[in-house]
Amino acid sequence: MKWTEEAEEAVKKVPFFVRKRVRERVEKEASEAGKSIVAIMEVKATQQRYLSGMASEIKGYQLDTCFGSGGCPNRARGGDDLLKRIEVLLKEEDLHSFLKNNVKGDLKFHHEFRITFSDCPNACSQPQIKDIGIIGAVLPAITVEKCSLCEECVGSCAEGAVSIDKEKEVPVINFDLCLKCGRCIKACPTGTIASARNGFRVLLGGKLGRHPRLARELGCILSSAEVYEIVKSCINLYRKKSTGGKRFAEIFNEEDFNGMERRFCK
Predict the structure, then answer these.
(1) 248: how many CB neighbours lie within 10 A of its CB?
(2) CB 112 within 8 A of CB 60
């Protein structure tokens, strides 16, 4: 559906974490009214109805992905099964009731516990600013297969983490730069670069707001089962320590982070 320039500018002023929902509702309501173009009046009317009914829209958590199942062209590690398990867990935990019992007044979207999944290090779903961010990861390794010196791996790496040792005729990976996206593995025609570990990076305790904070990354690549256990542990910690609607980042301290690393990054 087409939008007028004024309508586009208006929706850009809506907080980003509800902007997609507002935009979808504007288009839905405009379509139901028989309109083919969204103007400023449609945006204002829908926004007012949406914000006034916000409490009824809240379910206690947000679980986001970049492009949905199979939609990301840069997938490092598909996590569809893990996402389904996490969503079942979130529903079972009934965080909506927890928030209602701990927050004075109406619930708002910023009260919800937020988990997001990114299929690759492009991180379109913004895992760095969510309570829990999950990023698909593939750790590359050099095998015994002979390198053809084609340098396809070098060209595939946006971080400049891959080079060729011409004397030894092998690729070299700088793991201080490597983001574990798996592109060099896909690019290598000889199998000289292969996967050593396939899993997920996990970031904890990010948020925006008056006192923004970037999430911290656990120093290991984790399996689906380990990520699931981390999510369970974080929700338990949140239930135990959060009062008055405090975000996870506000109650997740250095000791908690170190405890997670000791437990899961062995």
Answers:
(1) 24
(2) yes
73 and 104 housed in the same domain: yes
Q: What is the CATH number of the domain that holds 16?
A: 1.10.8.550
Tokens matching residue 244: 């008055």
133 and 63 co-located in one domain: yes
What is the pLDDT confidence band of residue 55, given thresholds at 50, 70 and 90? low
Express each pLDDT in 110-127 by its tens digit. Answer: 889 999 998 888 888 899
Answer whether 193's CB lies under 8 Å from 171's CB. Answer: yes
Are 215 and 164 within one domain?
no
**Which of 73-87, 129-143, 228-242 is predicted with the least confidence, judged by mean pLDDT?**
73-87
CB 30 within 8 A of CB 44: no
String of DSSP letters for 189-226: SSSSEEEEEEEEEEEE--B-SSS-BPPEEPSS-B-HHH
pLDDT(132) > 90: yes
Q: What is the CATH number of the domain that holds 160?
A: 3.30.70.20
Q: What is the pLDDT of residue 253?
A: 95
pLDDT at 53 over 70: no
Number of folded domains in the chain?
Answer: 3
What range does the domain containing 102 cover? 59-137+198-264
DSSP 130: S
Domain co-membership, 18 together with 45: yes
Neighbour-count burial for 225-235, b at 16+ CB within 10 Å, e otherwise: ebbeebbebbb
CA 26 and chain centroid, separation: 25
